[in-house]
Amino acid sequence: MNEWRLAWRLARRELHGRFRGLRLLLVCMFLGVGALAAIGSLSAAIDGELKARGAAILGGDVEFATSQRAATEAERAAFGRLGRVSETTGMQAMAVRERGAESPQTVPVTLKAVDRSYPLYGNLRLADGSIAHPADPTHVWIAPGLAERLRVGVGQQLRLGSARFTIAGIIADEPDRLGEGFTLGPVAIVSREGVARTGLIQPGSLYETKYRIALPADRAPDAAAEAIKAAFPDGGWESKTRDRASPGAARFLDRMGQFLVLVGLAALAIAGIGVGNGVGSYLAARRGSIAALKVLGATSGGIARVYLLQVAVVAGVGILLGLVAGIAAVPLILWVAGDVLPVAPEFAIHPAPLALAAGYGLLTALAFTAPPLVRAGAVPAAGLLRGSLDLRRAPWRRVLPWTGGAGAAVVAIAVATAEQPWFTASFLATIAGTLLLLAAFGWGVRWLAARLPRPRGPLLRLALTGLHRPGARTVTLVVALGLGLTLFVLLAAIRTSIDANIRETIPQKAPALFALDVPRDQVDLFRRTVTGVAPQAELRMVPLMRGTITAYAGTRVADLQTLPEGAWALRGERGLTYSETLPEGNELVEGKWWPVGYAGPPLVSLDVDLARALDLKIGDPIRYSVLGVEREARVASFRRIHWDSLGFNFVMVFSPNAISDVPHNLAATIDLAKGQEGAVTRALLPRFPSVSVVEVRGVVEQVRTIVSQMATAIAAAASVAILAGIAVLIGAIAAAREARTYDGVILKTLGATRAQVLAVQALEYALLSAAIAALALALGLVGAWYVVVEVFAFEWLPDYPAVLGTLAAGAGVTLVIGILGALPILGIRPARALREL
Predict the structure, then answer these.
(1) What are the MacB-like periplasmic core domain coordinates in residue numbering (predicted)?
(2) Which of 338, 448, 520, 674 is most solvent-facing, going by the fewest CB within 10 Å?
């Protein structure tokens, strides 16, 4: 205890009030911890708001949904025994403004029919501030987007299916909007009696029925959901509870948050290098004090304690400031990006993510400050008095337990708190591998510079020598430069490639229109109607129904505690179809396709990625529920699906004899010349009022918006890593200042001008940037390719001139920072500097 008390007295005397010499440590801790605190606090705030408003978002404490049918009497009775029930029906439809309207006259909508109990929680508020009450069969409430596109208002009429409705109000707040998930158009809400007037619900029509239940206070939602599944195992019911009211949004936010946390950890790891450089530079400047303490009898442990306390104080201040910045960033992010977030949470301080960010910061500081602290304590007084000429390194047997232990703790915490542990471990391993590769490259640059022929020009010769002379920070500079330039390339390649896909590739591959609920007995009339307006149109028509996978290879989906990684098709209902031939845009990779006219046991062809996730083999059984009836088919083949075509792609395609007897309609894709979409839609609606027509251009715009928002979030998080890289670069320059001061003073003593000294520094950084540029380009392009092709499943279409321009700009920033770092050296007087060296 006395040793620590003495160490604190000495540390407090030396510690400058403005943290002079340790500011880089402060900045790096602030950047890394601040990023993690902001990301964690925002995720916790949104997650907390989703849970707090779960019942209102869902529309009940528990929800049961199924497609193409309503509940049976027994099922309704079971729902009623649980609590108060509200029934809604949702489907795609076309809203039509009658004659006299300006273009566009039709808009695809999500038609929602509600009963008199809706909503069980919250209120359906209208734009005039009133609360909507159950509508009569002739009225409709519409979303603002629908009112704008059709240019209609309250009191005017529009047609849905074969029925006309009067607009009763414009919706301002639909309480369960988020719980409804992704939709292909603005909502229009009618009564259940109103939807019956439209004639849109027929045998085979695609619609979804939901039963929301308000439970008594003493009944748990999960228990209620399990009770219904146990009572009706073949019903195909998909359940949600208020704790996961919007599982799609929650899952997306969890994974996006986890990815951003990993980016924050990468930024913190980069900042850690700056921490090591800053502490090393500070201890080099304190060499005289350390030598004096050693001469007076201080032990290596005592020296380490003194400066460990100083580092701990500054790191603690940096971490505290980072936590404050992370808390303050949440309302700022909500203000800037509130429209794109699923909910707008109230301001609150969430201790758990802040504690996690602080823990990461402390462990990182420990990992990167251990080597310079051990080195300072291990060098004998005589070596310290020799100054920069003593180049001993810290003994690794003393450093490794601290650095390795702290690093292992960071990895263990990150993996333990991750939703996808293997992905997290792989990401962290990639970061570590990249750092090691850059460090090895730095050693290679240093080794090569020492063996290259000496240029005849003195300035270039001095610059080349600066890369390998004793005390050169080449390895650290290469790591800092390489990380920064790699991130520049990575972000530029991802952004330009995704933009090119959305702008060029997807619209070229995608059809112009989707048509849903085409009656099976009117296929020829539908085709003639389309080709009558657009003779060159190409139609592709497929049977379409909805169903749920209930079991595979003897495993019941309901019995799984967690779904296998990649088995997203097990979550709720999926589109089902049947075909006698291999669908267009699919590639058979294993097994055989059934022959035309096949009449044997029911067969199914699966997406190969789903088959791998479920570890299925040819011949394994698949059980599925359609319209509440469970059926079975055997796996006949595996297919690779080209999802980017935006056509009809199904994870399960059945032989016709497996499901063709189920009541269903057809869906169609229509390829048209640009500008013919409106004419085809207007021609179809009078003859096919039940058909919903969706313009793919609108869907692509939604995809573009979502991807752009994701790219912006990733770029914002990565910008912290770039700032950390710049801090590391500045730290490396500062750490080498003593050696560079020595070189500058000698050069000026020998007659060199300030311009020549500055030119040597500029040439050195230019050589370093040129050496690292090719590696940064390769690493950045490989990382971007993985994100674009493997994560987003897009084509690889980067804008190489833009990528190279970004790389050149990054190298230019590096050169400017290097020159600015050399400016203080120019003002040092040789006589004074020589007395201090």
Answers:
(1) 26-230
(2) 674
> Quick check: bond before 104 cis, omega within 30?
yes
Burial 288-323 (b: 16+ CB within 10 A, else e): ebbbebbeeebebebbbbbbbbbbebbbbbbbebbb
Q: How far is Cα 377 from Cα 391, in angstroms, rounded to an integer?
A: 14
Give residue 389's pLDDT.
Answer: 43
pLDDT at 101: 45
Dihedral pair phi/psi, residue 70, rounded to 5°: -100, 170
Q: CA dihedral in degrees (189, 193, 198, 201; nearest 10)?
A: 100
What span, in angstroms and rounded, lies between the C-alpha atoms of 437 and 345?
42
Radius of gyration of the chain (CA): 33
Buried b (16+ CB within 10 A) or exposed e, 609-627: bbbebbebeeebebbbbbb
- Sign of torsion over alpha carbons 462, 468, 470, 472: positive
Q: Where are the domains of the chain?
A: 1-43+268-413, 60-244, 456-511+698-836, 538-671
Q: Closest Cα partner for 304 from 383, 198, 398?
A: 398
Q: Residue 225 and residue 240: Cα distance in Å, rounded?
A: 8
Helix (H) or strand (E) holding 746: helix 737-749
Query: 453 is written with which tokens?
Result: 């022929």
Q: Is the dihedral of CA 470, 475, 478, 483 positive or negative?
A: negative
The reported pLDDT for the residue numbered 790 is 72
What's the sign of the alpha-carbon dihedral 480, 482, 487, 492?
A: positive
Using left for φ > 0, alpha for ψ between -120 and 50, and beta otherwise, residue 19 falls in left
* Residue 10, token pair as written in the block: 């000495």
In angstroms, the CA 124 to CA 140 distance is 13
Average pLDDT per block of 10 residues along the chain, 837 residues long: 75 68 76 82 77 80 88 91 92 79 68 91 88 85 87 88 90 84 81 89 85 89 87 82 68 65 72 74 73 73 79 86 87 68 71 88 84 72 54 65 83 81 80 84 84 78 73 74 81 82 64 84 89 86 88 84 79 86 86 91 92 90 87 92 70 92 88 81 83 75 66 66 67 62 68 72 78 86 82 79 87 75 64 55
Classify residue 328 as exposed, middle or buried by CB count within 10 Å of its CB (0-12, 13-18, 19+): middle
State whether residue 245 is helix, strand or coil: coil
pTM for this entry: 0.69
CA–CA–CA angle 564, 569, 574 (5° rounding): 160
Residue 353 CB burial class (10 angstroms; 0-12, 13-18, ≥19): buried
Query: If DSSP codes are grouped into helix, strand and coil, which group holds residue 394?
Result: coil
Give the burial class of 83: count Cβ atoms within 10 A of its Cβ; 0-12 exposed, 13-18 middle, 19 or more buried: middle
Integer Cα distance of 419 and 48 in angstroms: 17
Predicted local confidence at residue 140, as pLDDT: 92
Q: For residue 268, which amino acid is it?
A: L
Cα distances from 189 to residues 46, 64, 223, 247, 593, in angstroms, run 28, 20, 31, 23, 44
Q: What is the pLDDT of residue 439?
A: 84
Task: Decide if 464 contacts 455 (C-beta within 8 A).
Answer: yes
- Strand-strand pairing, 238-241 and 62-67: antiparallel
pLDDT of 618 reads 93
722-734 burial code (b ≥16 CB/10 A, e <16): bbbbbbbbbbbbb
DSSP 645: G
- For position 643, what pLDDT does the model report? 66
Q: Would you call 728 helix, strand, or coil by DSSP?
A: helix
Distance separating alpha carbons of residues 696 and 506, to the nearest angstrom: 10
CA distance 29 to 270: 11
Instruction: Evaluate whether 662 touches 627 at the Cβ level (below 8 Å).
Output: yes
CB 674 within 8 A of CB 534: no
Which residue carries 């440590």 as its tokens?
Answer: 25
